Amino acid sequence: MHEQEAEGQKEMKIREFLRWCVTIDKAIDYFLTLYLINDAFCRCDLPLLPSTKLQKLVFLSEKAMIDEREKGFNFYFIKLIHGPFSQELENDLGKLVENGFIDDKELRPTSNTQVILDDFGHMILKNPTFFEKVNIVNNQFAGMPLHKLLEIVYAMSWGKGRTIADLPQRTPMLYPMKPEIVRTGFQITEHETESLLMNFDPDAINDLSEAMRDAREGKWRTYEQVFSDV
Question: How does pLDDT run across 153-176, given as a tens digit for each residue?
Answer without folding.
Answer: 999 999 888 999 999 999 999 999
